[in-house]
Amino acid sequence: MNNEEQFxxxxxxxxxxxxxxxxAKYATxxxxxxxxxxxxxxxxxxxxxxxxxxxxxxxxxxYQNKTQVYSKVENDHVSTRLIHVQLVSKIARTIARAxxxxxxxxxxxxLGHDIGHAPLGHFGESVLNELSLKYCQEFFYHHVQSVxxxxxxxxxxxxxxxxxxxxDGILCHNGEELMQKYVPRKKxxxxxxxxxxxxxxxxxxxxxxxxxxxxxxxxRISDVVAYIGRDIEDxxxxxxxxxxxxxxxIKQVLGxxxxxxxxHLVTDIIHNSLGKSYIGLSDKVYQALVALHQFNYxxxxxxxxxxxxxxxxxxxxxxxxxxxxxxxxxENTASLIYQDFLLHMSKEYVNLTSKERMVIDFLAGMxxxxxxxxxxxxxxKNK
Length: 383
What we know:
single chain, Hypothetical protein af1432, 2 strands, 61% helix, globular
């Protein structure tokens, strides 16, 4: 790069940085970005660079064939994990813009937050948690695996060098735990890494996660906003229940369709968070959201798959785990765990990772179709 190009890049970089002077008091500035490894500057601000790394990574493509709620359905309008993260990104950026917070940081967290989800959604996550506890004596949670993906697995086992603020927002995004007020907690690089490691050992630690930035708090509530109404539309598409089944008390506050639910929630969040050091909801809207979440749990999440299907996949995932462990022990390089995974990973990853964790990493990265194909093939051979 010649001197003229360097000057031009730095000039563009500082022009972008100047725009942040209009941010709100509690916004995260780009010049506060923390990286675990040195970062080369270009005309993009750091968090914008993080977004580009995320969407160009191989793991991002696999979002399109991972379950959001419903697996193996013949309906092209039902959400996949890819649709969900894009909805989270759009909703979160809308809120961040209204509150004059950092949209680049918000977008990066939103687009990367679910990358660690196992195939078959939360059911697949629960099966991998069983395996991880049994063989690694560690918990498996998708938000923790998401961080592991970017710290360790991507880029052939070398990681992507995302900012600590983005990694922290991803770790703390868990939208299944509803709160009325999301308050950021300042952390150092060391404190973030200690919290990440603790999540493998402590179930309680995963319930107490708080993002270090307001932007991370926005993504956490936006995760809920994105799925709570869209899951209802998917369920109605699949004739799992009728719109009139939604309780009247909820409809009177939030509406009975995805458009109205998003509108009322986003409006309330902006109104109750403007100029504040936290992201919050009004009492009335929060109570309606809790009630709607409980309704969805009973009518959607609890009934998303038939028991016999879940049993088939549970046994299938355990059988695949055993097969891949045997392949590693016998150094069967013809196995897919070598051909599609380990032969493409760095020596550092292979040398520093236990065989048990390698298999779990491989299973977690699979798409629904890949997993189904492998289970069907294995179980048909064992008949």
